[in-house]
Structure formats: C-alpha cells, structure tokens
Amino acid sequence: MIPFLDMKSVYAELKPELDAAYARVMESGWFVLGKEVEAFEAEYAAFCGAKHCVGLANGLEALELVLRAWNLGAGDEVIVPSNTYIATWLAVTAVGAKVVPVEPTPGGPNIDPDRIEAALTSRTRAIMPVHLYGEPADMDTIMALAAKHGLKVIEDVAQAQGARVRGRRTGSLGDAGAHSFFPSKNIGAFGDGGAVTTDDAALAERLRVLRNYGSRVKYVNLERGYNSRLDELQAAFLRAKLPKLDAWNERRRVIAARYDDKLADIPGLGLPRVPQWAEPVWHLYVVRTNRRADLVKTLEKQGIGSLIHYPIPPHLQQAYADLGQGKGSYPLAEELADTVLSLPMGPHMPVEAVDEVAKVVRETLRT
Ligand SMILES: *Cc1c(COP(=O)(O)O)cnc(C)c1O
Asked: Whose CA is nearest to atom 6 of ligand 1?
C-alpha cells in the first residue's frame, strides 16, 4: 500500500514540538489574533523574503482580500490561468471582477506569459499567476509585462511555499502573494489557514483591517470588513512546522528526481519539465498520458494512490456555465485535464516506494 500523501508522519516527526504548541495556546487562554499569529507572521515573512505577512483564514480569502484591498470590482478584469484550481477564479468573481483566462505553456502547467499581452484590455487591472504543482510561473516576464502596462500582480502561492525563481522565494516576487495552509499543502495547518505576503505596508495594514470586521480599534469599524483570521492554535502549529519546510521540500526534490530517473523513456508518458530558472518544491508530481484510465485502475489494484489535478478546468465547471465558455474554449487546459495524473508524493515517502510506483507505471504502459 502506497498512499497518495502520508498525512500522519508529520505528527510522528514533530510530536514534542506540536504538543508544546498546543499546550502553550491552551494555557494562554487566548485564541484569536494574539502572540502566536504575530510571531508566525514575522517568521513567515522572513522565510519568504517579504516585509509583511498577514495571517488569514484560508487561501481563497487571501486571494480575495488582496483584490478587495486594491478596490477591484465590477468592470475590472483580472488575467488568470485557464489551467488552475477553481479557487483562483473564485477569488476574482467573488469581488465582482471578470476572469480573463490565459492558456498554459504547451507542456503546462503554468500560464504562458507570451499569451498574456493579447488578453489585455483597457479594463485589465491585475494578473494572477499560479505556481501550480509547486513550479514557479515565469515571474520575470510577468512582472516586466505588468510594469509596462501598469498592472498589479498577485501570486497564488498555495502550492509553492518555499519555491524560488533565481534565488528569490515565491510570495516575494509579485505585489502580493496569497498562501494557503490547507493540511495537504507543502506547509499545512491542522485545519484551514492562509496568509498574504507583501512588501507594501499600506496593503498589509488594509488587510489587517479587512480580516477583522473592518476594524483596527475594537468596536470602531472603518469599513465593511470580514472575519478571516488565522487562529492562534493553527499559527502555533505552523510555527512548529516552518523550520522543517526547506528540508521537507528537499525530500520532495529527491522523490521527484527519482521519479524522473525511473520513469524515463516510457512511450506515451509525459514527465514534468521544469524551466532552468525555476526551483520548484514539488507539491505534486504530475505525469501525462492518454491511457490515464488504465493507469489509475492498475495503480489502484496494486494499492497505490493517485489523483487528478484537475479533471475539469474552471471554464467547464457548472459554477461558471454562465460565462458561456464551452468545450473548445481553452483547448490546452482541456487537454491537460484529460491527461494529467498525480503520482504519490510527499516529504515522508520512502524512495523505495517511488521505485515500486514506477515499476507499475512502466508495466502498465508497456502492454
Ligand atoms: C489550495 C489552493 C487554493 C485555496 O486555498 P484554501 O486554503 O483551500 O482556500 C487556491 N489556489 C490554489 C492553486 C490551491 O491549490
């Protein structure tokens, strides 16, 4: 049995630290917006190489509140990837702005910067690149485009905590970075959590107000805000995990390199190809094959977990049927949705398990 992601080993590895974090918060009697969140914000900002971090309730609201803080709404357009998790799009439509999808590079997974310029209009306000599967998007090109056209850039860092572009961390490359600490992310809470990193002090301050009912001083409300706060317990757990993040990402690199090696030269199998300038963190190891259904079935029979990220692109979801973008609107995203498969991956996966998965993949695709 090889699980898709081993969620239990983290507690085995960090039990003393996590138990101490739990006890610290329980004994403090303070559970929302306190010392743990403040300390985590400072530590995570330093980790990302950003000046500010604001802890929020989840990744979706991290994306959404940045757009609110920039006063985006009806009549504004935001460039988003056609190939992404639906949360990216939900943040844009939640503020009433229009999603303008742009296709990925030919092999995927990330937005193709060469296609962005053609999608810009006089209403475009922001670009929202996603570092999908832990692979950084082409931020150098995107930032140059944004500067040229006077646009804001918000990175969706949900799958790429710790990744780098030429030595600089994701979350410090755009005007803002939105992070998710959903349990299965590279650094996850034991529940929901999120954050925004930015060098913009005014943006950070506005987010602190927005996350707390629009209030800076208790019972004095400056604007109509939200309740979107990272809680003390989750912040304390994240503080226990953060010192391990680089080592865990390094373990993921070892697993990915082993897959690359063991899955080489299999006819009909596409492997992830990462650009030279990118230092990915392998949130997922995603292969492509036209024989996906066969492969899933065989893996399952051998007790090997696999998942599809994602089987239906946002534009074909019922949630966005009203946009009228039917099949054929974004053929590259659609082809990826039909062919991608994520193999088991995680910092606690034994290397021998990679060999076993690879053997089953090779045998299945040979016949
Ligand atoms: C997980 C994820 C989100 C949303 O994060 P939540 O914390 O679950 O709200 C956004 N974008 C991407 C690409 C994600 O993978």
From this structure: 59
The structure tokens listed for 165 are 């572009």
CA of 193 to the centre of ligand 1 (A): 10
Q: How many helices (H) and strands (E) does the chain have?
A: 11, 14
Would the pTM of this model clear 0.90, i.e. be above it? yes
Q: What is the dihedral of CA 326, 331, 335, 336, to 10 degrees?
A: -100
Distance 59 CA to ligand 1 centre (A): 5
> 92-119, pLDDT tens digit by residue?
999 999 999 999 999 889 999 999 999 9
Q: Is 328 helix (H, G, I), strand (E, B) or coil?
A: coil
Residues lining ligand 1, CB < 6 A? Answer: 58-60, 84-85, 87-88, 130, 156, 158-159, 180, 182, 192, 194
52 token code pair: 């500010």
CA of 367 to the centre of ligand 1 (A): 37
Q: What is the dihedral of CA 309, 315, 318, 319, to 10 degrees?
A: 90
| SS3 of residue 256 by DSSP | helix
Q: Give the number of other CB atoms < 10 A from CB of residue 297.
A: 10
Chain centre to alpha carbon of residue 240:
21
200 C-beta neighbours (distance < 10 Å), count = 19
Domains of the chain: 8-243 (3.40.640.10), 245-365 (3.90.1150.10)
Strand ranges (E), 34-73: 52-56
Identify the residue whose tokens are 């695709």.
Answer: 365
> Which residues make Cβ contacts (< 8 Å) with residue 30, sequence separation at least 6?
232
pLDDT per residue over 40-94, tens digit each?
999 999 999 999 999 999 999 999 999 999 999 999 999 999 999 999 999 999 9
Assess contact for 85 and 311: CB atoms under 8 A.
no
Q: What CA–CA distance (Å, rounded) separates 33 from 39?
A: 11
Whole-number Å distance between alpha carbons of 109 and 284: 11
